[in-house]
## 1
Amino acid sequence: MPRRLTLLALLLSPLLLHADNWPGWRGPRGDGVSAEARVPLKWGPAENIRWKTPIPGVGHSSPVVWGDRVFVTSCEELPGKPRTGNRLLLCIDRKKGGVLWRRTLLAAPLERKHQLNSFASSTPVTDGKHVWVTFLQDNDVQVFCYDFAGHKVWQRSPGKFYSVHGFCSSPILYKQLLIVNADQDALGYLAAFDKDTGDEKWRTDRPNRTRSYCVPVIAEAAGRTQMVLAGSKCVASYDPATGEQLWIIDGPTEQYVASLVYQDGLFFLTTGFPEYHLMGIRPDGKGNVTRTHVAWHHKRLPAKHAAYVPSPIAHGHHFYVVSDLGVLTCLETKTGRIVYREQLGEHHSASPVAVGDYLFFPDDQGVTHVVRAGADFRQVARNDIGEDCYASPAVSRGEIFLRGVRHLYCIGEGK
């Protein structure tokens, strides 16, 4: 191979790796955007369903994909033992959909939760060698590390967790660190562990002691690596290597579920409860930047015009957010100007993904609304899997992995 082509291959290899795999919550960058060029736009019982596999128990966590393996978590309630369940990790053959192995990580009483939550809502994360999972056991957060053969490597508990709505924040990876968010109705914290050994590397207290369920997003912003999350009555940025807080914005409301996304030099926020807001935030601040770094802000919106649970998505110079009540809002990134609002499904819990010029929005009834990105609203498909869906999709190698309440589906061109 000529030297120029060899160098090009080396430069592109990390991008190709990311394009192949969907390693954690919302994919390679944590923002729902896939590097794939093409996936099916339409599917149904007789079209583009390569396989569907029954998943035992119930869970709203998303599938993650690495190579020829797909990982999902679930909770199977035990017959004859009311209010007790096995928390499960399953490894599935990506090619045929068969279960390669199943592990019961723990058996524990079922915690109190919101009716729209599940006992397995935390999405796993993997680096191709290990897979990490979090569950709640008697108000203790439990973090598990398993290898791809199904052997437990380590287990740690970073501390207690108290919330009337249950547990669901997914772990994320940053270099050698596994990071867990535990905003709660007590002393909240962020904790980072060595991903291979489970040794705790840093811990940061969170303000305001209020439950939230957000997964942080890590982005290169304003010339530095930032880990940004909303929750516990604030929006805050941290150095993921050390846990040091870089900046913070007070409010704009009490509780949060949706992750942020970063595009065109701004972090984009949708929230929440009890008030609904949309906000663009400049990332170059230090300390408390509530009065100085809010680029634009839509305040105290009707519930149908902002999302509490579904995370937003960015494409080009637009942000898109579908509310829990199914209204899709498109905004300009730089100005926050509302471009359009259109109704999709009746109720949405899953977060969307973007592939090429198309956005995919699953609703709770299992219908995925496919919308072409751009300033004009163009819905190109409505694809029904025939069962309810609360989990966000995964995208890998031209395939979409979609979890319904009873099955995991592999969607690809041809049968």
## 2
Amino acid sequence: MFTAVALISVAFGIGANTAVFTLLDQVLLRALPVRDPEQLVLLKWRGSHYGSNWGMNSLSYPMYRDFRDDNQVFSGLLCRFGTTLSMSHTGQTEQASGELVSGN
């Protein structure tokens, strides 16, 4: 009985360490899956916020379209907006975190 408990404890320990390392490896240690990650920039808006944007680091969709269409500086431009979504499956509805992202 002692051997079985010891083996199960070691197995859970190895499994937990593997899961934690895999998560840290994916999030912190690996480079971003883009060609030149050091060239990524975040556009911030200063001053008054008009329309339906949500403050710092938020641009309205019409402003994003203007930046995208008239861009002469960046090789590409994308936008994202975090939001709460309602998802249902087999009659149960739950809230989930999600993002609205541009198609590019």
## 3
Amino acid sequence: MLLSGAVIGPLTRRRFNASLASLAASCATPRLIRAQTTAHLDVATMERPRILAAAASALTQPIVTITTIPSPHATPHDFYSELTPDPNPAAPKPHAAFRDHATALRNASSSIATLTAAYVLTHEDRYALRAGRHLAAWFVDPATSMSPQFPFAAYNPTKSVATPAGVVDLVPLAEIARALSFLPDTDALSPDELTATKAWFTGFQAFLNTDNNAFIAREAKDHIASAWLLLSSAVARSLADDIKLDACRHRFRRPTLRNQIDSLGVFPHEITTAFPYRNTLFNFDLLATACQLLSTQFDNLWLFELEDGPGMRSVAAFLYPTIHDRAKWPQIADPQSFRDLPGRRPALLFAGRAFDRPEYVDLWRSTPAPDATQLPEPIAASFPISQPLLWTARAPHGL
């Protein structure tokens, strides 16, 4: 019998099905290639000018740890932050919340990530060496290092207690842990410094898994739990802790998706907060970055969905129009800094690559990258990572 002018012999069911599959593949291939070419852009090439410009500045920035910033209730080595005031106009106006340690940690994370990204692009030792000096100051040097325990994070001075929201202030440690994965084979840290830095993060992972406030944060149903998940995942990846990584994958698949995402891709616990848009975007970035880090060739969390629909695909589909045009945000607008949003969301890049959605990547690429130094503190803190390159590139030794 004849098919497309070729003599193929007796047309069995197997031959017929194989022919149809081949024909379908040949027709679909051009479209697939076009989508992948756009969605899977070379992040290193795209980000190179921005990273190197920021790295030039980071090379000259002074190293500032929390030991140089006195806090109201902690020792010099204890991270201290306070809850931000209630935005409700009717609420009593307390003193301004102490946020200097949170700002210092975020700035350090940005510098370390930028310098590491510049090293990944250029392999120039000066970037790795400078990143190493930040790491040594924050995690190794007894005179300037920070404690891996956090009894004063998101402290409520009125009640004299820390709160589970403290893990949100610690999110910058996730990108520091990710940056560390790219530096073991460099001169950034001496062998003893590298060992001490990894010991610090081992202690921090223990804090995340044993502290009572951290436990409450892990079990939350909003961005606080997502912050815990990203932190634990990033530290586990940096330490090559497969047991913790598997535990984080399990937590992402079940309690996280069920607790946080409805069938329409909405975060129901975020849209009822005082800042629904900001917290929704923040949570999108947190979960997408964790998903990016935890997914493997054999366990792609991007594609995992619960039976009734909740998954990262539905979240991205819901949020893409509102990021493209914040006027399409269907909920109440944030009472403060609504016009400073959405900004360039790394979740769009990650989701666009995962789902072959070039329009997501194009929107990420066309939006100016935020300058944290020019944004009000709450908005700057809502961008959990600064260097998507570190989350799309593969670090040495499979980290």
## 4
Amino acid sequence: MALVAFGKVFSPQFLIWLIPLVPLVRGRRSLAALPLFAAALVLTQLWFPYHYWELVLRFAWPYSWLLLGRDLAVVALLFVLVWPRSQHELLGENRSRLEALQRVRAQVEL
């Protein structure tokens, strides 16, 4: 994802590579990842391929803004995906064990 967001070349087709991967995001991250990815796809579709040459040759302003919006959505998606997990997500299946240990510890301290 970082290679797509910060690479030297960002071809619109690179987003197609992410279509099977982004829906695999689980938990709360999916609430942010899926809309950001959908926004990036829609913003790309609004200017590519129909207005590509207007953007390349004349930097046509509406398409430049769409391109900037797409890039910002992809960078935001990258941050959502690499942001450190919360303690709850890190514990996963060991959460019930930790809670049991905390209850025992609380009883011992009484």
